[in-house]
Design goal:
Order of helices and strands: EHEEHE
Number of helices: 2
Radius of gyration: 14 Å
Helix content: 25-40%
Number of strands: 4
Structural class: alpha+beta
Strand order of the largest sheet: 1-4-2-3
Distance between the termini: 9 Å
Shape: elongated
């Protein structure tokens, strides 16, 4: 799966955000066990995880879901297994992280 970061900031704010999101992505991917699927029509999944300044996930919102329930469940299971993300930097501009999971090749 590929990972993308929506780019909305420029300069140092983007570097701070990208660095933090890369840490979060690595943590989630270390826990994620995607199902064996072959589907050219598999839709990307975008999750928004609301966090406090200690990195605790206070709310999870599915922004978009794939058309395969087991794929959606595997991503949500990985998030549940983590529980707490690394604390965001003090100058992190958001109260959430948004992550998009895309199937390989899409």
């Amino acid at each position: 799966p590929a990972y993308e970061i929506p780019l909305r900031l420029v300069g140092s704010e983007m570097c701070i955000r990208d660095s933090y999101l890369a840490k979060v992505k690595d943590l989630i991917y270390s826990r994620w066990e995607p199902p064996n699927l072959v589907s050219a029509n598999l839709k990307p999944v975008t999750l928004r995880l609301y966090i406090n300044n200690q990195g605790q996930i206070t709310k999870r919102t599915n922004m978009t879901l794939s058309n395969i329930d087991s794929y959606n469940k595997s991503i949500n299971d990985a998030i549940k297994s983590i529980g707490v993300l690394p604390p965001p930097p003090s100058d992190y501009p958001y109260s959430y992280v948004e992550i998009t999971f895309r199937p390989e090749g899409n």
